[in-house]
Amino acid sequence: MHNFIVRAITGVLFVAVVVTCFLKPLAMVCFFALVTGLSIWEFTGLVNLRETVKVNRFISTVAGVYLFLAFAGWCMQVVPSAAFVPYLITVVYLFISELYQRNEDAINDWAYTMLSQMYVALPFACINMLAFRSAANGETVYGLLLPLSIFIFLWCNDTGAYLAGSLLGKHKLFPRISPGKSWEGSIGGGILVCFIAWLMSYIDENGVLEFMGATQTGLTTLQWIGLGLVVVFFGTWGDLVESLFKRTLGVKDSGNILPGHGGMLDRFDSSLMAIPASVVYLMSCAM
Fold first, then answer.
1. How high is the mean pLDDT in each 10-residue block of the chain (287 residues)?
2. What confidence score (pLDDT) does residue 224 get?
């Protein structure tokens, strides 16, 4: 009972912080830069538990946070594309430094170092592409609706999947990796997200949240539903990927920074696949 209360309180506070951070662009950038750093630090700490792996946690974390900030500045059109050069230099350094470390398996070190950037840093950086876009007059505008909707869809998918799975779940979705997930739960989550996507299209079209800075996206109802389904599919895969990651390392949670919820990767696992997939989908819609 005590664990349930702790988990519930942490969950409510977590949702409140995420929603609040989207109200201001600077708050969003600062919050997700922090999340990026904590997630990479957590990831590199876990892979360093393997006997033949020795990743430079500090430089990998700094590089990932810098990539996020460079993306933010570039999307806001306040820095040129040359802002990515220091990041590329850091990546080159991480490769060359292995020549002087005399570690047991340099290939493992390189692989896990680059994985921290591709699996964690880059997906988080892509959230800037959802939040900032160019207006017709060439100016950059901030809109909270698209990035916030990704997390709303993920939360609703989890809620719908839990309820449907608890009531109707009989057929396992991926028993080898996540025995608790069922096809019935996934379908239930998808149906709930489709309804929420329809609601988001109504909010978007009628400017219901304009007072909060929610600029209109121009998406149709069908495109909103399509976005919701993209988040459902890739969010589920993201959850399964992180489950496989933890199962391979033999750990239950990625960390303990969030009481009752584990680590940062545990809370953002679904978004690591859903965010870049949503960017690709929305870019396709714009073509």
1. 72 89 94 96 93 92 97 93 95 92 87 95 96 80 92 94 86 83 90 95 82 77 96 95 89 77 87 96 85
2. 96
**CA 102, 104, 105: angle at the middle one, nearest 5?**
110
Cβ pair 155, 206 in contact under 8 A = no
How many CB atoms sit inside 10 A of residue 124's CB? 25
Closest CA to 28 of 192, 114, 117, 150: 150
Q: Which amino acid, 167?
A: L
pLDDT of residue 179: 81
Cα–Cα distance for residue pair 228/275, rounded to 1 Å? 12
Helix intervals (H) in the chain = 2-21, 25-47, 57-75, 85-96, 98-101, 106-115, 122-125, 127-131, 145-168, 183-206, 221-249, 264-268, 271-286
Cα–Cα distance for residue pair 115/43, rounded to 1 Å: 9
Nearest to 239 by CA among 159, 169, 178: 178
* pLDDT of amino acid 91: 94
Output the 3-class SS for 110-124: HHHHHHHHHHHHHHH
CB burial of 12-26 (b: ≥16 within 10 Å; e: otherwise) equals eeeeeebeebbeebe
